[in-house]
Each structure stands twice: as structure tokens, then as C-alpha cells.
Design goal:
The chain is α/β, with parallel strands linked by helices. Helices cover about 45% and strands about 15% of the residues. The protein is built from six helices and seven strands. The chain has a five-stranded parallel β-sheet. It has a two-stranded antiparallel sheet with strand order 2-3. Strand 4, helix 2 and strand 5 form a beta-alpha-beta unit. Helix 2 crosses helix 3 and helix 4 crosses helix 5. The longest helix is centred in the C-terminal third of the chain and has 33 residues. The chain is globular. The model has no long low-confidence stretch (mean pLDDT about 85).
Length: about 180
């Protein structure tokens, strides 16, 4: 697959000024169509946070969308991807594969993303940090920790496998303080 961000924020903030503003800007439908026409590979559109963008991605023929607000590189008051996820999943149904990222760090986070309807959850920042800390061994340790925590959460919620994770599980769990 190949993909692109559709909403990349404007430039990079370096101290008191924005730089590289010529390289980063929101993508318009015509630009996305042009890029999609250059490949026969499945196309992924990242940066979807609204129902209108999700519907446009479906109409353009995207194979998948990534519900993402780009984390620390975006606006601090941006809509969290986990908040946008359920409504987008409901709106697009099975017409496109929905993935999610931004702010997911643990096995519990992955479980919640799947329970809210994502088919997969991205963990880029934790993987990068693990790599920087200890290379391949750091990444392996992170993946093992995330997997163990997710298995524990699945067992606690009665999910025998990943396919059993769904939104009803979160609604059925008792709320405790």
C-alpha cells in the first residue's frame, strides 16, 4: 500500500518562527486524486478526523483511512483521534478499512482502539523511542510489553481472540472510581 497525509499542519515551528512552510500544507481533493492515479497499489489516506473527510476518502476510492491528529506535531487543542474514531467507523461502515494512531502507547490503548472499531492501531512514537533507547531489542521489549498487556486485558474482558474485541465490551464494563 501507499498513502499520504491529507491535513499536515503548516510548516514546522522552530523556536519563534515557522520554517519549511512550502513543504507542508493541507492536501486538496484534486491533489489526492492526482497522487492516487500514479499507483495501482491500495491507497491509504491519513489525517482523517471528520465525517466529511472520511466520506471524501471513500468517494475517492481509498482502501483505508487513518484516523489521526498527528500527535505532538499538531495543534494542542486538536480533536483526539480516539474521540473521532467511533463516529467515523460508524459512518463509513465496511466501505473502507479504518486504522487509527496518535497517543496509543500500551496494550490497553490498542485494545480500546480496536474496541472502538479500528482494524489496526499505530504505535509509531513508542516504537521510535524504544529504537532510540535500545535498538531492535528495545522495540522487541516494547512489542512484548504491549502484547502481554493486551492479552491480560483480553482475558479480563472475556475476549478469546482479537476478533472478539468490539465496542460492546467497553460499554459493558462497570465504571469504577
Amino acid at each position: 500500500a501507499v498513502g499520504m497525509d491529507i491535513d499536515h499542519f503548516y510548516g514546522v515551528l522552530m523556536e519563534d518562527r515557522a520554517i519549511r512552510t512550502d513543504l507542508f500544507a493541507p492536501q486538496f481533493t484534486a491533489e489526492i486524486k492526482q497522487v492516487m492515479a500514479t499507483t495501482k497499489l491500495p491507497f491509504i489516506i491519513k489525517g482523517v478526523l471528520s465525517l466529511s473527510d472520511a466520506e471524501k476518502a471513500v468517494q475517492l476510492g481509498a482502501s483505508a483511512i487513518v484516523v489521526s491528529n498527528h500527535g505532538s506535531g499538531s495543534l494542542e487543542f486538536g480533536l483526539p483521534s480516539m474521540v473521532a474514531l467511533p463516529e467515523i467507523v460508524e459512518a463509513v461502515g465496511n466501505r473502507v478499512t479504518v486504522l487509527v494512531d496518535t497517543g496509543f502507547e500500551t496494550g490497553n490503548d490498542v485494545f480500546k482502539g480496536l474496541a472502538l472499531g479500528a482494524k489496526a492501531v499505530g504505535l509509531a512514537s513508542p516504537v521510535i523511542l524504544a529504537w532510540c533507547a535500545d535498538g531492535a531489542q528495545g522495540v522487541e521489549l516494547l512489542i512484548n510489553q504491549v502484547t502481554a498487556e493486551m492479552q491480560r486485558t483480553m482475558a479480563a474482558t472475556g475476549c478469546a481472540n482479537v476478533a472478539a474485541i468490539n465496542g460492546g465490551i467497553i460499554r459493558e464494563l462497570p465504571f469504577t472510581m
